[in-house]
Design a protein that fits this description.
Phosphorylase Kinase, domain 1; Aminoglycoside 3'-phosphotransferase, Chain: A, domain 2; 2 domains; 5-stranded antiparallel beta sheet; 11 helices; globular
Length: about 325
């Protein structure tokens, strides 16, 4: 595989400190928690938004993880959605429990169970890949059929991105700079694969839909926890796990063998996997050279480029590009 941009997922966000949050937000959250917030750590560096996110110590001895954002920021709606979704997840899905929420003066804050752990995939190891794979397999069983009502299909998230390769071919969209030199040659096949995605990616499993290493924690016991549940959709049970494969392959994991072993994908047609990966590559190609959306950090575009590159490389091996 070719050279690829690297992203330090422990340092991708630009978050405010606790002291900069309005006192009304701090006080409302303390009331919701039923005790004082005695100490708050420095904000975490992962993620791509400017929403507040940090570990906090409570006067009653508990530790929680607090997120907060003002209206108008993407994180505001994301935190609200997560607070709504997590209580509906089956217990076998290891998502930190929601402890309390508060809404005041145009801000939303949520406190969740505090999990001490480390981010997998920095880089991927065989042990961590196996742990995450097991968690994805368990999650897929628990979330099929979906225990949540009203979820939109996965295709809803990417419906505007299906045509990106075709638009590049037609000269309607610029090809992002700095990607593989062979990409223009394979754009017709990439466009065909991506276009097939929405019809293939249907199912009755509730999916996280944004599973990546910085949305996971592995605790001291080896348990894999999954966070940031704000993009749930309906689709095939294998999609969350398959989205991790190109980066893992780039970092030395034999994901092609893993596909044959895992019950998630052992019976999935190869064209279906390739169509999914092509569609996500198209998603990552979109606006890769543009400034990040309001409220997001420049690291979002670095993340896009890394994923576009590794997803394309993964397809190149499978399809002889």
């Amino acid at each position: 595989m070719t050279d690829v941009p690297e992203v330090d997922y422990t340092s991708t966000s630009l978050r405010p400190n606790w002291s900069s949050l309005p006192s009304a937000v701090q006080q409302a959250l303390a009331v919701a928690l039923g005790t004082e917030i005695t100490a708050v750590a420095d904000p975490v560096g992962s993620g791509f938004t400017g929403g507040f996110a940090a570990r906090a110590q409570l006067a009653d001895g508990r530790q929680v993880f607090i997120k907060a954002a003002p209206s108008g920021m993407h994180a505001y709606g994301a935190y609200q959605r997560e607070a709504e979704v997590v209580p509906q997840l089956p217990a076998v899905v290891r998502a930190p429990a929601i402890v309390a929420t508060a809404q005041v003066d145009g801000w939303f804050a949520v406190a969740s169970e505090c999990v001490t752990g480390r981010m997998p995939g920095t880089p991927w190891t065989i042990d961590d890949f196996d742990r995450v794979t097991a968690a994805c397999e368990e999650m897929a069983v628990a979330l099929r059929p979906s225990p949540l009502e009203g979820l939109k299909p996965f295709g809803y998230l990417v419906e505007d991105d299906v045509a990106v390769p075709a638009q590049i071919l037609a000269g309607e969209r610029e090809l992002p700079l700095g990607l593989q030199p062979w990409l223009p040659r394979v754009l017709p096949e990439l466009a065909e694969l991506a276009a097939a995605g929405p019809e293939i990616l249907v199912g009755d499993t509730a999916m996280h839909s944004d599973l990546r290493p910085d949305n996971m924690l592995i605790d001291e016991s080896g348990t894999c926890w999954i966070v940031d549940w704000n993009w749930l959709t309906l689709g095939p049970r294998w999609v969350d796990w398959a989205g991790l494969l190109p980066i893992a392959q780039h970092q030395g994991i034999d994901t092609f063998a893993a596909i044959k072993r895992s019950p998630l994908t052992a019976d999935v047609p190869g064209e279906h996997l390739d169509a999914f990966v092509a569609l996500i590559a198209a998603y990552m190609l979109k606006n890769a050279d543009a400034p990040p959306p309001t409220g997001c950090t420049p690291a979002l575009r670095e993340h896009q480029r890394l994923h576009a590159w590794t997803f394309l490389d993964w397809l190149a091996v499978r399809r002889g590009w």
